[in-house]
Amino acid sequence: MVPAFSRARSLSAPPATAPGADSAKAVRHPDPAATRTRTALVTGASSGIGAAVARLLGDEGTWDLVLSGRDPARLRAVAEEASATAFAADLTEPGADRRLADFTLAAVGGPVDLLVAGAGIGWAGQFREMPPHAIDEVFGTDVIATLRLVRLLLPGMVAAGTGRVVLVGSLAGAVGVRDEAVYSAAKAALGTFADALRYELRGTGVGVSHVVPGVVDTPFFERRGKPYRRSRPRPVPAERVAEAVRAAAERGLAEVYVPGWLRLPCRVRGAAPGLYRLLAGRFG
Fold it and tell me: SMART domains given for it (predicted)?
């Protein structure tokens, strides 16, 4: 296990209230649910979307954050910015999911309010040329590790009667992308898992959100072995996806596309699959 790095957030005392008209406000008791520190675990937080989510939540100052990622140095830097606790780990390694879950629950002192599953890798190229170990790595990271972590944290959320799981998917999982067959399959599995789990958790107080970004300006494309060279659609900043993650968590949204117009090809595929495949074969 890679040693964890932690940083405590400093809290300052509230300013004294001067006597007079404002004194009435000072004796009002705020809603504890609105002011209490919430707890969250963000995976894939050493770069890209996960790092953007960590920084966004850290800036709010109301989250007790635990961050996980593969790269200890980059993760430590993000944790410093977000005033978070970091646990560097490769979640595909045996037992890593359990160690992360145990560490997180101990660090936040109870069940987490929010799990953002942002860890993911890709591989680009023709499927018949894809090495077998790469198939295992993509599914192991994008699907198996995520499902195992959700399985470990979900009972605490259900027992508390509150919580949200946000799964970061991809448009590739909704429509399929040429030369990304396994990545598309992995993200499709994640989207279907989100739907099925949402139905199962109805009435428990725990929600499931599926955030579906298109092309995002992150190191993802470099690491998958093939840079993104298309002029359209243009990549969106990771911060825009982070905003969608926060909106999904705070508003209880089931599914969010980033950008929103990406719903259109998904609807065309559902309503007119023959037309969609014709267009995708020509332009996709």
Answer: PKS_KR (SM00822)
